[in-house]
């Protein structure tokens, strides 16, 4: 597996930091389910204050997980699909790594099993 570039690694850390909070994960899920949403619509789904939700949205914007479009007085949020693709790519790399490790373990266990049956 190749080592990520410094800037890419920092971006990935921001993605995971942003997703570490359950409220922010819920916001991402809301946007994934509903598509574009105004800040007011997003806030109406939570019992925390509007400023608290705004702070969560700021973290998601800074991590580039969501995009913000200003339309007059409305702030419209949507998922950044490029960031979601980056997350998926990382998950698939980890899956491939662990699949490879488990395959090697299976080979070792099968070899041990054959040794045991020969005795």
Q: How would you describe the overall organization of this protein?
A:
This protein has helices at 6-19, 22-34, 39-43, 50-62, 81-118; strands spanning 37-38, 66-71, 74-79. The protein has 119 residues and is mostly helical. The protein has one domain (6-118): Arc Repressor Mutant, subunit A. The chain has a three-stranded antiparallel β-sheet. The longest helix is centred in the last third of the chain and has 38 residues, at 81-118. The mean pLDDT is 89.
Describe the secondary structure blueprint for this structure.
Blueprint: H1 6-19, H2 22-34, E1 37-38, H3 39-43, H4 50-62, E2 66-71, E3 74-79, H5 81-118
Antiparallel strand pairs: 1-3, 2-3
Helix pairs in contact: 1-4
Summarize the helix and strand pattern as letters. Answer: HHEHHEEH
Strand order of the largest sheet: 1-3-2
Q: Please, how many domains?
A: 1
CATH third-level topology: Arc Repressor Mutant, subunit A
Supply the CATH architecture. Answer: Orthogonal Bundle
- Calculate the mean pLDDT score and round it: 89
User: What's the total helix number?
Assistant: 5
Keywords, separated by commas or semicolons:
single chain; 119 residues; mainly alpha; Arc Repressor Mutant, subunit A; 3-stranded antiparallel β-sheet; 5 helices; 12% strand; elongated
């Amino acid at each position: 597996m190749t080592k990520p570039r410094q800037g890419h690694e920092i971006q990935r850390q921001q993605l995971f930091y942003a997703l570490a909070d359950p409220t922010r994960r819920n916001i991402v899920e809301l946007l994934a389910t509903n598509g574009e949403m105004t800040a007011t619509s997003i806030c109406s789904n939570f019992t925390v204050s509007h400023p608290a939700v705004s702070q969560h949205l700021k973290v998601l914007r800074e991590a580039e997980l969501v995009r913000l479009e200003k339309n007059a007085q409305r702030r419209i949020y949507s998922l950044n699909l490029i960031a979601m693709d980056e997350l998926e790519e990382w998950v698939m790399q980890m899956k491939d790594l662990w699949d490879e490790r488990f395959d090697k373990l299976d080979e070792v266990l099968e070899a041990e099993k054959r040794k045991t049956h020969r005795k």
